[in-house]
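Ticket reopened. Same input as before:
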Amino acid sequence: MSTATETAAGAAARGRESGRALAIAAVLIGLGLVAPLVLYPVFLMKALCFALFACAFNLLIGYVGLLSFGHAAFMGAAAYVTAHAAKVWGLPPELSLLAGTAVAALMGLLFGWLAIRRQGIYFAMVTLALAQMVYFFALQVPFTHGEDGIQAVPRGHFLGFIDLNGTLTMYYFVLGVFLLGFFIIYRTIHSPFGQVLKAIRENEPRAISLGYKTERYKLLAFVLSAALSGLAGSTKALVFQLASLTDVQWQTSGEVVLMTLLGGLGTAVGPVVGAFITVTMENYLAPFGSWITIIEGAIFVLCVLTFRRGVVGEIERLLKRAPRRR
Amino acid sequence: MLDWIHISIPPTPALFAQLLIGLINGAFYAVLSLGLAVIFGLLNIINFTHGSQYMMGAFCAYLALNYLGIGYWPSLIIAPLVVGVIGMAIERLFLRWVYRLDHLYGLLLTFGLSLIIDGLFRNQYGSSGQPYAIPEALQGARNLGFMFLPNYRGWVIVAALIVCLGTWFIIERTKLGAYLRAATENPTLVQAFGINVPRMITLTYGFGVALAALAGVMAAPIYQVSPLMGSNLIVVVFAVVVIGGMGSIMGAVASGFLLGLIEGLTKVFYPEASNTVIFVIMAIVLLVKPAGLFGKAA
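Engineering reply: fixed in the latest deploy. New output:
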């Protein structure tokens, strides 16, 4: 095959790819704009926060192949910082969000620096243990108010003039934050940097032998993922006007793994779908108490044994197979 | 600086009491991380269900006492057997499908299983703890001169040491253990020599799980029997495993006891850090010796 046809085919494929991406983006934004007319906005905001959280998590597991079992630490810590900044320091929402995100990024830098020394299962255990440390820290330091959490966090005025106390205004604000985060992740994945990440996932020794300093790439991806998880947590703190221990405990770390696995590891929209399914499920099963845990466990088992591509991964596979039959 | 140390040294009995508690916790860390290491060696799976199986061991003893009138001593044998058999069923039904996949799937699968088990128990028994009486023969305490040692706690430490040494002996000094180590090294070759490796994997998982259940029975009179007892412990045990490295049996045991002691000491000198000290040590070990204290470079 000559290089010319290869490039042409590549360009065509890229064209199709970006066309599809635009279509997906249009559908997502459209759905996001119309959704509050049909569905309960608070539920949607919760789902969007978790969707951003899951997308950030997916950046690590899906594109670098690193399973972090401690992402709740970033979400929870950022929620606490944002809540504290908004309530005690009286900062406006945009600065509170920034503060939370920055703290999560710094923590990501520290944890990532420690955790990338080990691979695979050990990486998961190290992140889990570090996150548990954050949990105990949050349990003991006074500013988090222990079991009560930081309550009645003021939402404030975005940029000084947009009052976020209205549910619908808040919803569109959250939608904006989510789209921004999603766009950052999408651009990261489709940049040369993202290609190197995928190379590391597929064959790290080879990437090293090609001259890439893989540790740096992994660390940067980790920091980015932590920062965006923090953004999700900060936003959640403003939505529910609450930062509590639930966000830092390790069950939340498990939940985000579930969302991503269910939606589809390494797919752009998979985590969003997974987050919506999980949050919906939790909403409807809330009266049944610990049955939620049991069902989540069962979904984990099912996904691992039979359904490893997740919902979106399976759909993509079906779509890819269909044209060939024609 | 020195003054500060003088002031903060607590009266000796309190120090020894905390050291004893540390040693007890260490005994449980040791038995649990031993089981994790044995399972990981052959199955290449980090058994997230370990905490749930520890909890099941404790519940097994509790239920046997309350419904069947079976006391502590028979439970020490029965509970590990029952939980071990359940473990083997889990291995046959679920785990064996993921051996060929990325190791992370094993972690996710066992995590899911532990959610199911913990959820079922919480549904049935709530989150509060149930008391379990210390067996009659071990009630009371003896005076060691410098402190009072409750008999039951002394027994737990001795029993845990015996279990750990016994496991070490089986794996390092018997023919069965030699097969096991060989299969860890190269399962295909061992299979070619006519040894039924899949059965060995099942039995090994059953054994590792039984160890967790045994720890659960021993823990029942000390901590309360509660559906949450396992999930709280397993994260700490993971940190212990990272610190020790899963390369050696003795490494797992030694780091278990050592970290229990350090935790106990921290409770005396700086109680606020007692929950986190193991995680901090883990971070330091990762910086200094990323493969773990007793581990080989991966």
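Chain A has a mean pLDDT of 88. The first strand of chain A starts at residue 157 and ends at 158. Please confirm and we'll close it.
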